[in-house]
Amino acid sequence: MNWKYSQPVSIYFGNGALGELSQRIAERGYQRGVLITTTHFLKNGTAKKLLSNSENHLINSFTGFSQNPDVSEVDGCAQLLRKEKADFIVALGGGSVMDGAKAASAMALTGNSIKTYYGSQIPVPEEHLPVIAVPTTAGTGSEVTSVAVLTNREKGTKAPMSSNSFYPECAVIDPRLTWSMSPYLTACTGIDVLSHAIEGYWSKGHQPICDALAIHAAKLVFENLRVAYKDGTNVTAREKMSEASVIAGLAFGLPKTTSSHACSFPLTNLYGIPHGEACGLTLDFFIQINGKKDVRTQELSKILGFKNSEEMAMEVKNLKKELGLRMDLKDKNLTKKEKNQLIALSHYPNLCNNPVEITDRVLRKLYDYLCGEWQ
């Protein structure tokens, strides 16, 4: 087996790590930065504190990214970066903020629109502004990946883009920033972490270092997500979920995601189901499908302490129920035409990374199952 492992992002992890942000900026010699964040962190004082403690290196802020960052928002952010003559970015937020910031970091130096590259075969230019990624959720792993998931609302599409230009310069992970997450957000992002780990392990692009990371992350989720959901003030559970998130990001970064993530995009685009919840919605189904034929899926279930893949699928199903996450699509009352649309739109490229071929027949079983029409 031939493989290569590369991870260009420097990682600084620990409770209180945010307090060393000015040190991270100074040691890299950055001068003019823009803080990209959300209005939530402006209102609660976190952004103001960062701006005032940056030794005048953060000169402006941008809060224009929505929950599913749109290509027009990326262009707007890039325009501000050019106007301010920024030489670096601090992205403080969840996956939407970090994904938008990473895409804008490349566009800022080109003068082009991200629409030139989104959904096309044109490679994103390698030159980009360095990004310091500061995640505030334990979920996406965007702080260590080369992926940015973007939306084009005008065309009704949501899809991932991948480019080496999107790797942040460094990730500053302070688990304390996740303490204010609601139980529902904790559940959505946490099940996304589990999807990253499991899909990264069984992906056709798997390799031994990412395998070890995937196992470590999945164990942490099974051991800590329930606790973090029920008691958001549990310091250990919050720290372990932040650890799981970044480790899972490393686990799928090279192998890439597979079936659950492929199906999540139309579920989010068409029905507004949050990304993590949409991934979790199909995860137990694909564990069962893959476990019937794929040796690595069976192997993973045993490594994680389950008798077989069926038992692991049942644990995921029980976990979703305990977390109050969506279990099916029965409330959507989908017509045959709508299910056909879901099937067609589930054929994202990462579906091909799945170890077992996912045909239209399998997808029909999936959506019939979620609609309560197949057992």
Describe the model.
By secondary structure, the chain is an alpha/beta fold. Helix content is 49%, strand content 11%. The chain has helices at residues 21-27, 39-43, 46-52, 71-83, 95-107, 183-202, 208-230, 235-253, 259-271, 275-293, 295-303, 309-322, 336-345, 360-370, and strands at 10-13, 33-36, 58-62, 88-93, 131-135, 147-152, 157-162, 170-173. The longest helix has 23 residues, at 208-230. 53% of the residues are buried. The mean pLDDT is 95.
Give the overall shape: globular
Low-confidence stretches: none
**Proportion of beta-strand residues:** 5-15%
Major sheet description: 6 strands, parallel
Enumerate the strands of the largest sheet in spatial order, edge to edge or round the barrel.
1-8-5-4-2-3
Radius of gyration: 20 Å
Order of helices and strands: EHEHHEHEHEEEEHHHHHHHHH
State the helical fraction.
40-55%
Summarize model confidence as the mean pLDDT: 95
DSSP E strands, number = 8
Number of helices: 14
Structural class: alpha/beta
State the end-to-end CA separation.
39 Å
Record the SSE blueprint.
Layout: E1 10-13, H1 21-27, E2 33-36, H2 39-43, H3 46-52, E3 58-62, H4 71-83, E4 88-93, H5 95-107, E5 131-135, E6 147-152, E7 157-162, E8 170-173, H6 183-202, H7 208-230, H8 235-253, H9 259-271, H10 275-293, H11 295-303, H12 309-322, H13 336-345, H14 360-370
Parallel strand pairs: 1-8, 2-3, 2-4, 4-5, 5-8
Antiparallel strand pairs: 6-7
Helix pairs in contact: 4-5, 6-7, 6-8, 6-10, 7-8, 9-10, 10-11, 10-12, 13-14
